[in-house]
Automatic annotation (TrEMBL), chain A:
PANTHER family: ANAEROBIC GLYCEROL-3-PHOSPHATE DEHYDROGENASE SUBUNIT C, GLYCOLATE OXIDASE IRON-SULFUR SUBUNIT
GO cellular component annotations of the record: glycerol-3-phosphate dehydrogenase (FAD) complex; membrane
Domain 4Fe-4S ferredoxin-type residue range list: 78-111
Compositionally biased tracts (Acidic residues): 12-25
Name of the protein in question: Anaerobic glycerol-3-phosphate dehydrogenase subunit C
Gene Ontology BP terms: anaerobic respiration
Signal peptide limits: none
Molecular-function annotations in GO: 4 iron, 4 sulfur cluster binding; metal ion binding; oxidoreductase activity
Region annotation (Disordered) ranges: 1-25
Origin species: Halorientalis pallida
NCBIfam families xref list: glycerol3P_GlpC (TIGR03379), PRK11168.1 (NF008369)
From TrEMBL, chain B:
Gene3D superfamilies linked: FAD/NAD(P)-binding domain
InterPro entries: FAD-dep_OxRdtase_2_FAD-bd (IPR003953), FAD/NAD-bd_sf (IPR036188), G3P_DH_GlpB_su (IPR009158)
Species for this entry: Halorientalis pallida
Molecular functions (GO terms): glycerol-3-phosphate dehydrogenase (quinone) activity
Protein's name according to its UniProt entry: Glycerol-3-phosphate dehydrogenase subunit GlpB
EC class (word): oxidoreductase
The FAD-dependent oxidoreductase 2 FAD-binding domain, residue ranges: 7-410
EC code: 1.1.5.3
Statement: the UniProt record of this protein carries the keyword RNA-binding: no
Keyword set, alphabetical order: Flavoprotein, FMN, Oxidoreductase
GO CC, alphabetical: glycerol-3-phosphate dehydrogenase (FAD) complex
NCBIfam families assigned to the protein according to its UniProt record, in alphabetical order: glycerol3P_GlpB, PRK05329.1-5
Gene that this polypeptide is encoded by: glpB
Cross-referenced SUPFAM superfamilies: FAD/NAD(P)-binding domain (SSF51905)
Length: 440, 426
């Protein structure tokens, strides 16, 4: 504890602070966020820097230690601007997990990035609007999913993609993810909502944008698996979790959607529901970024009641027992599993491997602790594409060496990158769980 | 409670890993939980047992000969010499040919980055050719931009300390263009891949490095580099440099983040996996639930963004580290062990916690829990706090690992002992 934290600490002997010399000062006049103790906790061991996937491939990137505590300290001077290199941070948040001293690095990065975008980035630039559109993927997806076949055809038209790169800075190297012909929410309404009622076992599903518009099969697997265990599911109104907005410094957009989500889900928590996510970046946002960045009523409550889907079943059900007696039909599928960085920070990096170790019919192989490199919208930017692929190289190589020719991960954009780099089909652990436990 | 094990180890450093493997080898079902990425990468990779006595005598030639004279309550006194040897034997088994020193009970003297020598019981194979007892002259090579290893200064200090050989230092520019302040892993990975992958550098990085070093060689039979010679393929990097230079090559251990520490971490975590230990990293253990009569721990509470999830087990091992690792915490009021609130003896007046001299006898360095001979922490009256809780590593008190050079040895000995007893009591 620093002296500045507690100028009136009654435990301080009177003789230690001469009355005439000590003047308590407000060290955070311009900000409601108290990041001072975070900066003070950094003892410069540089472990975060050696964990940073961007610094690993880009020697010019100053690394998380600079972007966090050092930049924060420099900013105490009025004449200092945020270093533009903050936009090269991909928000993978691995530095948080690496820090032995609990410095809130990603929180500092989110703050610095938002300040840079607010005050230093031109609102007339292509970069700003490109980033804004990427960050607000949900809005485009909503429109695109109204005409999925047309959108899919247009999005992957070669000349159009080239034009997108030239005019808008979106890489032409990637194929756009296909929109489902029926969204998850449409399916949910069509089946008449929950099929199981329960007073005790109730979960509210935060499906996020991707499982709704692009991979409803993941969301359906969540629903069927949880219903198999006797859970009543609700699918409330929700916005984007905010993950792509944090990563692009669009905190106002993120705040808008967070307000919707927190109000919607905290009401359900009062009725006995826990919040379940199938995307580990969504659960990360609700659990860590919301309480770090927002002060809406119910924020802490939502954070404390949010779980990733498998994690929730591991905690509340005898999942190990259920899987020990189960098997997946087929010829012993080998799965090359990549743990998303955001899963790592929630303590989930090993759970899929641990869980499926004893399941007959599948063999799961962990392809190591490297970052996939796409980091949501990052790898979609033309100027970041090569960096994104260089980061992913280690994972591609490990996948190539793995037995299986099918990949597995919880994160939709890691899945995109895995498919893009190897050509493998990518599955979600919930789909494997459904195959093992739910009778079709 | 769905998350349930026979043995639960809290903490992922050397003591925690050793305890987990030791428990798993009794046949127990083991889970290891740690808050953050393991801190082994912050350690030098050297495995010391006892370099100096608590009175400051040393460097000791034979650490085992000094164990009998340690004061009551010292972790080695608690577990006995057998556990020290068993802990080292377990380490030897896990590290196999990547470590040396097990041919003798005597300490080796290893030159460090600052030109000092450290007495140590086991050392990475990569530092073996650098032993200070070796009488062959040595060339130390540092890299521009790699702060933390000043080769000429290091050599001068070795000579001044009376090393039985002549050391010389030279600084070369690393053969790949780098930023002003590159990460240590950057050097290691460039040497691993052996190609810079950019237009600024053609061909083999290792060979280019040799070309820069060879001009400085003046008859020395061994060359020491800062410990950044590879992360994934250190043997290959060293072998290539040795072949091309025509001399032995060794690494000089560096401060954090440390490549020898990273390599050891990788190896030990692979071993955990192979033993079937369930590993979980990312959430802190913040408390516990006791049984009805209060003498057993039923579960520990793992914090997940504000929710606490119980992890049940029959036996628990506390290996959360000391003051630096935050296994022992302090504020102006007192010193505590934050997970189980085990008793940590300390003077009431915090001005008695330290000595005014920087290298004086600091009480804080010996703060920690006070265990019985089964390593179960005891309360202030000397009674065991919980029947099924044992402690290992730096969370233990009554020893000053920094002054004694005993940190790794205590972690291995107490980790082995606590893990085995935990496993046997399931």
């Amino acid at each position: 504890m620093s002296d500045a934290d507690s100028p009136h600490d009654p435990g301080v002997p009177d003789d230690e602070i001469p009355d005439d010399e000590f003047e308590p000062v407000d060290v955070f006049p311009e900000s409601e966020l108290d990041l001072r103790s975070g900066a003070d906790d950094c003892y410069k061991c540089s472990t975060c820097d050696t964990n940073c996937p961007v610094a690993e491939v880009d020697d010019e990137f100053p690394g998380p230690k600079f972007q966090g505590p050092e930049q924060w300290r420099l900013k105490r001077k009025d004449d200092r601007e945020i270093d533009p290199s903050i936009m090269d941070c991909s928000n993978c948040m691995r530095c948080d997990n690496a820090c032995p001293s609990d410095v809130p690095l990603s929180q500092m990065h989110n703050e610095a990035r938002a300040e840079y975008v607010d005050e230093q980035m031109s609102k007339l630039s292509v970069e700003y609007w490109r980033n804004r559109v990427l960050a607000n993927y949900r809005k485009g997806a909503w429109l695109g999913s109204k005409f999925p076949r047309l959108t899919n055809a247009l999005a992957n038209n070669g000349p159009l993609r080239k034009l997108g790169e030239k005019l808008f800075g979106l890489t032409a190297e990637r194929e756009f993810p296909a929109f489902a012909t029926q969204t998850f929410r449409e399916w949910w309404a069509e089946r008449g909502g929950a099929q199981v009622q329960s007073e005790e076992k109730r979960v509210a599903y935060f499906h996020g944008c991707y499982a709704n518009y692009n991979t409803p099969e993941v969301a359906k697997a969540m629903v069927r698996t949880f219903e198999q265990f006797g859970y009543e599911i609700v699918v409330p109104e929700q916005g984007c979790s905010g993950t792509p907005m944090f990563a692009n410094g669009m905190l106002d957009d993120a705040r808008r959607d967070a307000a919707t989500n927190i109000s919607s889900f905290s009401e359900l928590i009062d009725e006995g529901y826990d919040v379940i996510c199938s995307c580990t970046s969504c659960s990360m946002a609700l659990r860590q970024e919301y309480p770090e960045l927002f002060t809406f009523e119910g924020t802490a409550d939502v954070a404390a009641h949010t779980y990733e889907a498998l994690e929730y079943l591991r905690i509340h059900e005898d999942l190990r027992g259920a899987l020990a007696g189960a098997e997946v039909d087929g010829d012993g599928e080998d799965l090359a599993y990549h743990a998303p960085c955001h899963a790592r920070n929630q303590g989930l990096a090993r759970q899929a491997v641990e869980l499926f170790r004893d399941l007959d019919g599948v063999a799961v192989e962990d392809v190591g602790d490297s970052c996939s490199g796409i980091s949501g919208t990052y790898g979609w930017k033309a100027e970041k594409y090569e960096k994104s692929m260089a980061i992913g190289e280690e994972m591609f190589e490990e996948m190539d060496e793995a037995e299986g020719r099918t990949g597995m991960t919880e994160c939709p954009t890691c899945a995109m990158q895995m498919e893009h780099g190897t050509g493998y089909d990518i599955r979600h652990p919930l789909e494997i769980l459904e195959a093992a436990l739910v009778e079709s | 409670m769905a998350i349930e094990q026979e043995v639960l180890v809290v903490g992922g450093g050397l003591a925690g890993v050793t305890a987990a493997v030791s428990a798993a080898r009794t046949g127990a079902d083991v889970r290891l939980v740690s808050y953050k990425q393991p801190t082994l990468r912050n350690a030098s990779g050297l495995i010391d047992v006892l370099g100096y006595t608590p009175d400051g005598e040393g460097p000791l030639v034979d650490p085992f000969a000094a164990l009998d004279d340690l004061p009551e309550g010292h972790p080695y006194e608690r577990v006995g010499a057998d556990a020290v040897e068993s802990g080292l034997a377990l380490f030897d088994d896990l590290t196999d040919s990547t470590y040396e020193g097990n041919h003798t009970e005597r300490n080796a003297l290893i030159p460090t980055q600052g030109g000092r020598v450290k007495p140590t019981a086991r050392y990475p194979a990569s530092v073996a050719a650098g032993l200070a007892s070796d009488e062959r002259d040595a060339l130390l090579v540092g890299f521009e931009r790699l702060v933390g290893f000043d080769a000429p200064l290091s050599a001068a200090r070795l000579n001044a300390a009376g090393a039985p050989f002549e050391a010389r230092g030279a600084t070369v520019e690393f053969p790949v263009a780098l930023s002003a302040d590159p990460k240590v892993t950057r050097f290691a990975h460039l040497l691993d891949r052996d190609e810079a992958g950019e237009e600024r550098q053609e061909g083999s990085v290792r060979r280019a490095l040799v070309e820069r070093v060879v001009t400085h060689l003046d008859g020395e039979q061994r060359v020491g580099f800062p410990a950044v010679l590879g992360d994934d393929h250190p043997e290959e990097v060293r072998a290539d440099l040795e072949a091309d230079l025509g001399v032995d090559v060794f690494e000089v251990p560096m401060g954090p983040p440390s490549l020898p520490g990273l390599r050891l971490e990788d190896r030990l975590y692979d071993a955990l996996d192979a033993e079937g230990v369930r590993i979980e990293t990312g959430n802190p253990v913040v408390g516990y639930e006791a049984g009805a009569d209060g003498d057993r721990v039923e579960a520990v509470a793992v914090d997940r963004s504000g929710a606490t999830v119980p992890y049940a087990a029959e036996q628990f091992v506390l290996a959360t580290g000391g003051l630096v690792g935050k296994g022992i915490d302090s504020d102006r009021e007192g010193v505590e062990e934050p997970v189980f609130d085990c008793h940590v003896g300390h003077p009431p007046d915090r001005y008695d916690w330290f000595d005014d001299r920087a290298f004086g006898d600091h009480r804080f360095a010996r703060f920690g829990v006070d265990p019985d001979r089964e390593l179960r922490p005891r309360n202030g009256r000397g009674a065991v706090e919980f029947d099924n809780l044992r402690a290992a590593g730096a969370v233990l008190g009554n020893y000053d690992f920094a002054a004694e050079k005993s940190g790794s040895g205590v972690s291995l000995a107490t980790g082995f002992h606590a893990g085995r007893l935990a496993g046997e009591n399931t």
